[in-house]
Amino acid sequence: MSTHDLTLIAGSAATNNEAQVLSLRHLIDGEWVSSASGETFERRSPSTGQLVSSVAKGGMAEAEQAIAAARRAFDDGRWSDIPGADRAKFLNKVADLIDENRARIALYETLESGKPIAQAEAEIQGAADIWRYAATLAWNIRGDSQNALGPDMLGMVLKEPIGVVSLITPWNFPFLIISQKLPFALAAGCTAVVKPSEMTSATTVILGELLVEAGLPAGVANIVLGYGDPIGAMMTTHPDVDMVSFTGSTAVGKAIVAATAKTLKKVSLELGGKNPQVIFPDADLDQAADAIVFGVYFNAGECCNSGSRIIVHEDVADALNDKVVALSRKVPFGDPLNRETKVGAIISPEHQSKIDGYVKGAAREGAEVLLGGAAIELDGLDGQFYQPTVVASVTPEMAIANEEVFGPVLSVLTFKTFEEAIALVNGASYGLSAGVWSENVHTCLEFARKAQAGTVWTNTWMDGFPELPFGGVKESGLGRELGHNGIDEFLETKTVQMRIGKTRQMWV
Ligand code: NDP
Fold first, then answer.
1. What would the CATH number be for the domain defined by 14-271+476-493?
2. Domain ranges of the chain
3. CATH of domain 276-458
4. pLDDT digit string, tens, across residues 80-134
5. CA distance 508 to 505
6. Comparing C-alpha atoms, which of 55, 407, 40, 397 is closest to residue 201?
7. Does residue 407's CB lie within 6 angstroms of at least one atom of ligand 1?
């Protein structure tokens, strides 16, 4: 295939020079501080190679100080004791500040992650709404009561903030993912230590600036910059941390469960996925193809929800593949700072090699690369770009059918019967999301019941709402974010039993 068959967006020098290089520091106990060691590291744009940020490299000392600050701030009640309504007002103020700063946040999100600017702006807008949704929950922290325990007993179930929480986030949706955690933790009355991925620290630091501007008391939210080792490790083992909420790879998620076991912390995990979409013969193939192309190339496929595993009925496989390949050629990919771009750069050279390894491996095992299958250099850009790639004739035992590629790569498998399709869906170790395409509501409902997944989409893909919980089963995670569950994760349950009057002796 010639790359002329693809819709390429070249780089523009004008758009690349607008941003100042940021100097990023830790937020600990309300102060912006450098690392005690004085060490820093750099983040360069994955699309142009330009320097975006110089980042303080935190170590054990910064992690310890941040945890101690969060502990003090929780224990003295400066945040947990104020009414939920006041916490709600604060969260709404942050949402307004996010809106006011949307363009700046989106610019740095794009520069550090390589995602398209229009998409980044939509994500920041969506994140502000999540802060507003979390504010509604802060008004509504309610427990329960039990008034049928006999005449001399009343039971109450209280909901209390769990305490100090460690929030660890990845590089693929830095601002959105911290916004799925922090406002809910704050709504509950918790205090937090936040660690973004070392590749995408900038927008978490900008969020910290907005928290300070909105008047968050010192120590309630702390940010430590640097690497999983040693900061993440300290945040998951320290006895003063009560809970860990993590989004990232399943391998690190498992390591976190092991690390937290010694102090038996609560753990909430949003991990990987190998998300199937099943296309039945009666599906609207045009709509399905459009959603498939969106589902696999969105965020260059660097997305836990990537719809990367197509399971199509063999009667319509060729027709669907033709449509998907034709649409894939039209997807504008290239310069993330161009507003037309829909697929941007790959986060790092190492990650691009990993993506390519999966495609080459599948080809060696007999799969057919219908489109793409290689990195590509784009005029005016000095970064990593991977062609939209469609791999057909994939069989269930191939690595590309089971493992998270985390790139713009679609795998297509075929099936003959409903049972066979469900067996393929549920054969994966992951269980994040699944989709079904059929005009028959009975097929959709039966699929929704039988698919092992935290979210099932019928005749659509990757819609998301703050009101609806999100999370995975099996090796895709533990717990749920968003919806009412979003705040419940950060609340502990306390049972209070009250004797009424002195009508009865306790024992003897
Ligand atoms: P990781 O899971 O390696 O990292 C996610 C976060 O955890 C980062 O902030 C990282 O820090 C931190 N971390 C790393 N090791 C530890 C540890 N032992 N204890 C505590 N925190 C730790 O994801 P990557 O960003 O490296 O991506 C690797 C792969 O993970 C991807 O290829 C993809 O398959 C998957 N992934 C899945 C995501 C999802 O949403 N499900 C999101 C992102 C990635 P640091 O990297 O700064 O050292």
1. 3.40.605.10
2. 14-271+476-493, 276-458
3. 3.40.309.10
4. 999 999 999 999 999 999 999 999 999 999 999 999 999 999 999 999 999 999 9
5. 7
6. 55
7. no
